[in-house]
Amino acid sequence: MNIILLRPEDWLDSSTVELRDRRHVHIRDVLKPQIGSSLKVGKLGGARGTGVVTKLTHDESQLTISLPQPPPPRHAFDIALALPRPKMLRRVLRTTAEMGVEHLHLIHGARVEKSFWQSPLLQPGRLAEALQAGLERSGDTVPPQVHMHRFFKPFIEDTAPALLKDRHGWIAHQTAAEPLSRAKGKALVMLGPEGGFVPFELELAESIGFTGGHLGSRTLSVDTALAAALSQALG
């Protein structure tokens, strides 16, 4: 945990928070601060700064908070990802949060099992928990906004055109003529399931302006492909 994320219910007054949950346990047992020590904190969804420890017991921590720093900048790429199996989804959520993705679109596809949409991980509370793990690792405060699209064709024909008004669209597949490394500036990058997009899906996406882009000749797992795609726009 590289930042202590603060929620609205933590505040005792305008400058003091009290923690009694796993964040307190982390402070007490891992960070082991002294009274007066400064810890890195951030308001969930907002600014970052420091918390000065004013009270530390077995059951609670109290911190005096100062939040002068804005959140880190957002990643240039938004992601549209074919919904992976639940175990993989948890890693995907954490990675998008770590990398500062602003919008994550989870989409259906011909090779996405319908049962994946029944995963408890898609419930709001579980989603927030998985995203927060990524924020805590990277020192960010703003989680990705997660949008769910249970039908591929309506996403491409009805939703994607509006998403492409201020950015270019790329769809990743191995047979693409261009490497995804040519993606510059703001983009919406589509990543398929481990079996890839079927020809109909590729043709439909390209018909509205998506450009095919490859990540090399190797077949990658979903989480590796996601990290590789996002790394194209780092720095």
Instruction: Find the CATH topology of the largest domain.
Output: Alpha/beta knot
Mean pLDDT: 95
Helix % is 25-40%
Largest sheet features: 7 strands, parallel
Order of helices and strands: EEHEEEEHEHEHEEEHEH
Helix/strand-derived category reads: alpha/beta
**Total domains, how many?**
2
Name of the top-level CATH class of the largest domain: Alpha Beta
How many helical stretches?
Answer: 6
CATH architecture of the largest domain: 3-Layer(aba) Sandwich
Strand order of the largest sheet: 8-7-6-11-9-12-10
What separation lies between the terminal Cα atoms?
Answer: 24 Å
Q: How much of the polypeptide forms β-strand, as a percent range?
A: 25-35%
Describe the structure.
α3 links the parallel β7 and β8 (145-149). Helix content is 29%, strand content 27%. The chain is elongated. The protein folds into two domains: 4-69, Beta Barrel (Ribosomal Protein L25, Chain P); 77-231, SPOUT methyltransferase, trefoil knot domain (Alpha/beta knot, 3-Layer(aba) Sandwich), CATH 3.40.1280. The strands form two sheets. It has a seven-stranded parallel sheet with strand order 8-7-6-11-9-12-10, with helices on both faces. It has six helices and twelve strands. It is an alpha/beta fold.
Distinctive features:
235 residues; alpha/beta; Ribosomal Protein L25, Chain P; Alpha/beta knot; seven-stranded parallel beta sheet; five-stranded mixed beta sheet; 6 helices; 29% helix; elongated
What is this structure, in a nutshell?
By secondary structure, the chain is of the alpha/beta class.
